[in-house]
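A reminder from the course coordinator: this example appears on the midterm review sheet, so study it carefully.

Given structure:
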């Protein structure tokens, strides 16, 4: 059985670090990044340093539904999905509030939805949340929580804007809300995948010394 790993945001920073760790845990490692050249450079470095996995770059924006389907198809071609480290994301300084939600929360849900049929016993997913929801004291009431728990609703952005209020149009506010949504999503996805023996968790890092962090 050929085991396959996926790292998103693999072209630099935390994603690259995840790729270095996973490169000795699977047989093939797909390095996903919208910066295809960055992913290719990391793949070459991993291959040149003699890791177990054959590293394969995969240019993809995690909000691209068709691209995600191609990613899933590639996994099936290669073998069995073993590990997913979803580190792709953007910070408040990189985009407006809508794009922050689209990449950080909706992108997580899209990736999970696409890969869900490939989960089997031993598959493990790790999604990157953040310490920011704790610092911002994000504590949604049940109505807002229900909206956050349905990030693939076609009117999600309008619904969350109406529920939270105009402050969420600040990307510095949208970011902790989106990352809180990631943590909530991981708990729900764990329940969905548990029956087949797969695991899901989220991590909430502090500030990490990466190009994006700087």
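Designed residues:
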């Amino acid at each position: 059985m050929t085991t396959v790993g996926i790292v998103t945001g693999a072209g630099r920073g935390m994603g690259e670090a995840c790729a270095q760790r996973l490169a000795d845990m699977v047989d093939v490692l797909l390095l996903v990044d919208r910066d295809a050249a960055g992913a290719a450079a990391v793949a070459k470095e991993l291959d040149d340093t003699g890791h177990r996995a054959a590293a394969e770059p995969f240019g993809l924006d995690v909000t691209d539904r068709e691209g995600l389907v191609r990613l899933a198809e590639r996994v099936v071609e290669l073998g069995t999905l073993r590990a997913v480290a979803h580190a792709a994301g953007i910070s408040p300084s990189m985009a407006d509030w809508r794009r922050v939600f689209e990449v950080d929360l909706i992108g997580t849900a899209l990736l999970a939805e696409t890969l869900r049929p490939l989960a089997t016993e031993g598959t493990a997913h790790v999604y990157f949340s953040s310490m920011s929801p704790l610092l911002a004291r994000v504590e949604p009431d049940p109505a807002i929580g229900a909206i956050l728990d349905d990030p693939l609703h076609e009117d999600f952005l309008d619904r969350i804007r109406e529920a939270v209020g105009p402050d969420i149009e600040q990307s510095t506010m949208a970011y902790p809300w989106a990352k809180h949504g990631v943590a909530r999503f991981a708990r729900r996805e764990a329940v969905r995948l548990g029956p087949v023996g797969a695991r899901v968790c989220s991590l909430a890092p502090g500030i990490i010394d990466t190009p994006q962090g700087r």
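The chain has a mean pLDDT of 95. The beta strands are 3-8, 28-33, 54-59, 80-86, 124-128, 199-203.
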